[in-house]
Amino acid sequence: MGKTYERIDGRLRTFIEEQHIFFTATAPLDGDGTVNLSPKGVSGSFAVIDERTVAYLDFAGSNAETVAHLRENGRITLMWCAFQGPPTIVRIHGRGRPVFRDDPRFGELIPHFPGVDATRHGLRAIIVVTAELIRDTCGYAVPFMSYDEDRDLHARRFEREDDTSLSQYFEKKEYIARSIDGLPGLPLPLPALSGVPGPAENPAGENGTAPGER
Asked: What digits encode the pLDDT tens for the residues 148-160?
């Protein structure tokens, strides 16, 4: 049977932080709008900020549906499921907001992700989620699957971009500045990325171990 939690701590927090992938779900207010579901899996890009707040790094991609939906209505669900060990599914239903590069809070949040070299992945924003409902359920139907390692394709693709070329890349994509349903997405041109540790300042790199690393 499912259980509701008041806070993200103890065994629940440990489970979340140990997973190598999680999923985000958002939707526009329009009942005919496009529901979005995304996997997130760069090691070290998720962090528990406090007992009711989590955050993750939003990296370069061909869409910005999550950002657009959060800008419109803030609704989001995060889900983790166990592919190894006891069968468990955890969901955090809450309100999210994108913190963009030029937001003063951006620099305050970055230290929560010490185990990832964000400069390699085309960091666009930090998504901060305040939990309103925290629940777990059984994962009896989730198959056993093993984790081998992170793919390096994303980092290899975007580590060669600077702020200018990354912004130009986004401007060429159809669903970055606007969502599939025409909602405002990622603000462009992209502000310069400053105050974010690179490999020299963060020798652990994207696969290093750090508190909060999945």
From this structure: 999 999 999 999 9
